[in-house]
What we know:
The protein has helices at 8-14, 65-78, 86-92, 132-138, 164-180, 206-215, 227-240, and strands at residues 40-47, 52-54, 81-85, 117-121, 146-149, 184-187, 220-225, 245-250, 260-261, 271-280, 283-291. The strands form 2 sheets. The protein has a 9-stranded mixed beta sheet with strand order 6-5-4-3-7-1-8-11-10, sandwiched between helices. A two-stranded antiparallel sheet has the order 2-9. Helix content is 26%, strand content 21%. The protein has a single domain, classed as 3-Layer(aba) Sandwich (Dihydrofolate Reductase, subunit A), CATH 3.40.430.10. It starts with 7 loop residues before the first helix and ends with a strand. The site of ligand LIKH6CAM has 17 residues, from α2, α3 and β7. Pfam families: RibD_C. Its EC number is 1.1.1.302. Belongs to the HTP reductase family. Catalyzes an early step in riboflavin biosynthesis, the NADPH-dependent reduction of the ribose side chain of 2,5-diamino-6-ribosylamino-4(3H)-pyrimidinone 5'-phosphate, yielding 2,5-diamino-6-ribitylamino-4(3H)-pyrimidinone 5'-phosphate.
Amino acid sequence: MSDSNPPTxxxxxxxxxxxxxxxxxxxxxxxxxxxxxxxxxxLTFAQSLDAKIAGTGGRxxxxxxxGRHRVEGRMRTMHDGILIGVNTAxxxxxxxxxxxxxxxxxxxxxxxxxxxxxLILDAQLRLSPTCKLxxxxxxxAGKAPWVISSAPPPADGFFAAEGAxxxxxxxxxxxxxxxxxxxxIVLVERETLHPELPPTTxxxxxxxxxxxxxxxxxxxxxxxxxARIIQSFLSASGTSGLVDTLIVTVAPMIVGRDxxxxxxxxxxxxxxxxxxxEVMGKDVVMGMxxxxx
Length: 293
Ligand SMILES: NC(=O)C1=CN([C@@H]2O[C@H](COP(=O)(O)OP(=O)(O)OC[C@H]3O[C@@H](n4cnc5c(N)ncnc54)[C@H](O)[C@@H]3O)[C@@H](O)[C@H]2O)C=CC1
Ligand SMILES: Nc1nc(O)c(N)c(N[C@@H]2O[C@H](COP(=O)(O)O)[C@@H](O)[C@H]2O)n1
C-alpha cells in the first residue's frame, strides 16, 4: 500500500474519507455524530505495555514512531479539530498538524491536506503566546489554535475570594497576549453547585466544551490526551455517551511506575465493541466503538 492511501485500519474503524474537508462542507462519511449537540469524538493515544503515556514528570515519550505517521497523521486530517489538555501543550509544545503526510498526488486543487483546528482545554490560559501552534499558524503550517477557557469568577461582591481581582486581571492579560499572537479564546460556562464561590478545579465540563465546539462549527474532534483529558472523556462517556470511537496504540515498552498513567477513576467507562486490531511495525493498534451497556 502506498503511504498516500488511507490505512485500511482507519477505513474500517472510522469509514472511508476524502482528505479535504473544511467546516461548512458536507459531513464526512463515517464521522457523523450520533448527537446533534456535540461533534463526533475519536479518543486516541499511545501507551506502553504498562499503560503509561508519558515518562517521569510528564516527559514526552516517542512510543509509536511508525504507526504514528501513517495512522495519527491520517486521523488528524480526517477530523475538524484536535483536542489536548494544557499540560500536554506546555510539556510537549506540539504542532498538531499534518506535516508528516505525503503530499497528495491526486489532488486537482494542489492543496495540502486539511489541518485540524488545535483545541486546547486551558481554564487559566497557561498556553504560551510563543508556542509552536501559534508560530506555525503564522506561517500557514497549521490552523491557529482555539483555547477553550472559562472566565474567572467575578472579583467583586460579598463572596469574592482574596486575590480574586488579581486573578481576573492576570487572566485578562494572558487572554490579550494569546489573542495578539493569533489564538482565539472560546469561553464555556463552568458549572458549580456554588457559583458564588471560586472554582476548585481547572477542569472544564466536557459536555459543555463539546457543545461550544459544535456551536462553533466543529463537527468532529480527535482527542489526543494527555492523561487527565483521557480520564475526563472516558469517565464522561459512561454517563453521557461522549466518546464514539477509541483508538489505542500499544508499544512494546515498559515505562515504570514513575511514568504518567491514565488508569484511575475509569469505573464508569461503558462497553467497548472491538472493531479491528492491526500490527503496524512494532506496535499494535486497536480500534473500538464505545457503547453503552
Ligand atoms: N502518548 C500519547 O499518546 C500522549 C501523551 N501525552 C502526554 O500526556 C502528558 C500530560 O498529561 P496530563 O499531565 O494528565 O495533562 P493533560 O494534557 O491531560 O492536561 C490536563 C489539564 O488540562 C486542563 N483541563 C481543562 N479541562 C479539563 C478536563 N475536563 N479534564 C482534564 N483536564 C482539563 C486542566 O488544566 C488540566 O490540568 C504530557 O506529558 C504528554 O507527553 C499527551 C497526549 C498524547
Ligand atoms: N500517537 C502518538 N505516539 C506517541 O509516541 C506520542 N508521543 C504521541 N503524542 C501526541 O502527539 C503530540 C505531538 O504532536 P506533533 O508531533 O508535535 O504534531 C503530543 O503532544 C501528543 O499529543 N502520540
